[in-house]
Structures are given as structure tokens and as C-alpha cells.
Design goal:
The chain is an alpha/beta fold and 294 residues long. The protein has nine helices and ten strands. An eight-stranded mixed β-sheet has the order 1-2-4-3-5-6-9-10, with helices on both faces. Strands 7-8 form a two-stranded antiparallel sheet.
């Protein structure tokens, strides 16, 4: 029964994506896929957060908003292709750099002072910033993240479930606590620094990630969720996303055959199309108007 339900959902998502594309193709006047960007500079605890908004030209306010979170050691640029696809389909999107999120970050801070909880506070700040913006739907803000950004998005959805309209996770790094445990010596004394993946983090990173169970927190979110995970992910085994779907109330996991930790080419395009369709489906079920509707 569950397999049939998931298959039906996947078909529905694909059909909705096709409808979006065919519907916009027939519009007269301004290019229905046109969008503009604007820099958005924010500040939390005296530190700057760099963000960029993607705003569709033809859709009317208030708009649904998708907040996209990058992974460990990355920055907002990795999320830009998805933000563009959302904006082309009438949704607003925001990409941003976490404080201390990477060496290439346009935000302030050092990776040695960053942790999953400091990033959760960054995302909480960004969410609240846009919840107070009349251009965006108060009940139409979605969280979208990749890798550690998916971990953070899942954490915030679990702590702010009423403020999260939907959750989209790409190859979520739910194995990070186990990775960190292996960095702690038998004595239990936390080292000053540790290398996670290819990136050096500080003691706080190891300490903070041990203070909660991500699956327990995620289980407090009862809203709709869509997860994507590559079958050949060398960093985060697929089993971690399968476990996440079991603790969620309304979730679907779509596996991407042969994909690793990150999507490119057709895998990126397919996951973007399905993400757009997911957002539209959630908005429709919630009784919201389609983006761009007069």
C-alpha cells in the first residue's frame, strides 16, 4: 500500500511540473519565467549574513518563499540553480551564506566557531526576517537544504513546525553525529579542532551536535516533506534518509539512481522540477492561490 501511495505521489508531482511548464509557455506579454535578484544584507548577533533574493517578475504578492540552505564548507552559489527554477515558476527564493559556513562565505564568521546550532540560529533569523515581510506568504514559507543545510532545515522544521509550510531535503547529512563521534578520543575530551569531510571545524561543532537527536527533533514536524538521495552517495548512506521518512508523518523519499553527494545535469533538473511541483501541490492543498494568479 505504501509503495502504491508513493508511486501515485510521484506521478502527481510529475504531472504538476508538466502543467507548470506548459501553462507558463502559453502566457502572453512579459516572459512568464523572468525574474530579478536583489542582495539582502542581514545581521545577527553583530555578524553579517549575506543573502540574495530571487523574485519573479510576473507573479503578484504575497508570494510563496523557499529558503535554501547550503552544506558544510559551501556557500549560497550551490543553491542558485534551484532558486532560479523556483523563481521561473512564480515562487520567491532566498539563498544565503551561513555565518562561518565556509572559507568562501560572503557572511562573517569563522568555520571554527560554527556549529549546527549556530547555523540553526542563522536560519531561524532568516525565517523570521521574511515572515515579517509583506511580500511573502506567512503560511507559505518552505525550507530547502542540501547535505548539512538539509540537516539544519530539518532541525528548524522540527523546532518551528507551524512556521514551515513544507520541507525539501537533498542528500541530508543525518550521519553527522556519528561522523563527529568518531572524532572524539576514548578519553572523551573534545579536541580543539576536527576535520569533517575536508573542512576544519572547532570544538563547538563537536559539542553542539551531541546535545540532541536529529531524528527526535525532525519527528516533531508533521507537515509535508520531500527527500532526494543518490543511490551512490559516498558520504551519506541512503539508509539515513530512509530512517527520516519513517519518523516523518507525510514524507516521500525519491532515490536518484547512480547519483552521489550532489546532483548535476539531468539529476539536478529532475529534482528541481519535482521540488517545484511539490511546492505547488502543498500550496494547492492548503488552499493558496497559484503563483501569479490575479
Amino acid at each position: 500500500m505504501m509503495k502504491k501511495k508513493n508511486a501515485l505521489r510521484t506521478v502527481l508531482l510529475l504531472l504538476l511540473a508538466v502543467l507548470i511548464v506548459s501553462g507558463t509557455a502559453g502566457c502572453a506579454g512579459a516572459d512568464p519565467g523572468a525574474f530579478r535578484t536583489e542582495d539582502c544584507l542581514m545581521e545577527r548577533a553583530g555578524q553579517r549574513i549575506y543573502g540574495k533574493l530571487y523574485l519573479p517578475e510576473t507573479a503578484e504578492s504575497p508570494l510563496p518563499l523557499i529558503i535554501l540552505s547550503h552544506g558544510l564548507g559551501s556557500n549560497h552559489r550551490i543553491m542558485e540553480p534551484y532558486a532560479e527554477r523556483f523563481a521561473q515558476n512564480g515562487f520567491a527564493a532566498c539563498v544565503f551564506d551561513y555565518i562561518g559556513g565556509s572559507e568562501e562565505s560572503l557572511s562573517d564568521g569563522s568555520m571554527k566557531d560554527m556549529s549546527v546550532l549556530t547555523e540553526a540560529e542563522d536560519l531561524r533569523y532568516v525565517l523570521d526576517r521574511f515572515r515579517g515581510d509583506s511580500r511573502f506568504m506567512q503560511n507559505g514559507i518552505f525550507l530547502f537544504g542540501g547535505s548539512q543545510g538539509a540537516f539544519i532545515s530539518a532541525y528548524l522544521a522540527g523546532t518551528r513546525p507551524k512556521d514551515t509550510a513544507g520541507l525539501i531535503l537533498l542528500y541530508p547529512a543525518f550521519n553527522l553525529p556519528e561522523v563527529c563521534r568518531r572524532k572524539i578520543p576514548a578519553s572523551g575530551n573534545l579536541p580543539d579542532t576536527a576535520v569533517i569531510g575536508k573542512h576544519t571545524v572547532g570544538r563547538r561543532y563537536l559539542k553542539d551536535i551531541m546535545t540532541f537527536d536529529i531524528y527526535t527533533v525532525l519527528g516533531r514536524y508533521a507537515g509535508p516533506a520531500l527527500l532526494f538521495h543518490g543511490t551512490a552517495d559516498p558520504y551519506v548512506p541512503l539508509q539515513y534518509s530512509r530512517r527520516a521518512v519513517k519518523v516523518l508523518t507525510d514524507a516521500e523519499l525519491i532515490t536518484v539512481e547512480g547519483a552521489g553527494h550532489g546532483f548535476k545535469g539531468e539529476d539536478l533538473e529532475r529534482t528541481a522540477r519535482l521540488s517545484v511541483a511539490f511546492v505547488l501541490r502543498v500550496l494547492t492543498l492548503n488552499g493558496c492561490e497559484e503563483p501569479g494568479a490575479a
